[in-house]
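Hi there,

I know you've been waiting on this one. I reran it after we fixed the sequence typo, so this is the corrected version. Both the input and the resulting structure follow.
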Amino acid sequence: MAPKLVTAADAAYYTGRPVGTIWRWASEGRIHRYGHGKGTRYDLLELPRLTVDEWGEKHLGEPPPLPEGAHAA
């Protein structure tokens, strides 16, 4: 399936996490980067979605796994 590319800001909104978390996940190898600089995009299909239940409570999805042998920043 082709990637669905979005900006870091859009990825942060989708996941309910700060932009810095998206950047960190990419630097740790949890998600892929497409492009570089201001043109960098992230695949929405690799990201955990923020969900909201019927009471309006937000639930963060599990972070993407670290690659084999990698260490968290």
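Quick highlight: Residues 7 and 39 are 8 Å apart (CA to CA).

Best,
R. S.
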